[in-house]
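Running this now, will post back.
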Amino acid sequence: MALVELEGSGRSLALNRLLFEVKTFGRKRHAFTTFPERHSPSIFTTLSSPSTADMSTRYFVSKLLEILVVREMAARLTLSSSQPTITINTLNPGFCRSSLGRDVPGWSLPLTLYFWGLVLGRSAEVGSRTIVAAAEAGGNGAQGKYISEGGVESEFVRSEEEREVQGRVWGELVVKLEAVREGVTGYLV
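Update: finished.
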């Protein structure tokens, strides 16, 4: 629905080419999973089954699923219009030092984040360069891309099998979303 409203805003303002940027934040950690659930007949059923769920890799799988869904949405936006007014990409600014964890209760996690921030973190300013680069890339026609500070993508994301799994993930997700609110994916189907 939000995508339809974005497109409608451009029309109601009589703008011929209003470019809306939709960014999702991904992580390099999508490369840390082999995603064995992709071999099952129903990916989401396997992911939600307590008997087969591997919670130690769930964060990595969620980041991979995000990339697959964004790519499929972008492909469908491109198909629905010869000149789409909505650009959607996934970006990863990397691990940045910031004060986001300042209100976390206790001392262990904030101290750990502080330490790793000193050792591995980049400044928020440096991390924000990826956000600016992603905005610029969208204006230059990038659609459905994973934009990272290091350009890291898993082997799976670059494979032929990924395209097939991406379509399956999208199909299963559409069924789930339509069960919650009918018509919600109509703009992208």
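Confidence is low (pLDDT under 50) at residues 14-21. More later if anyone needs it.
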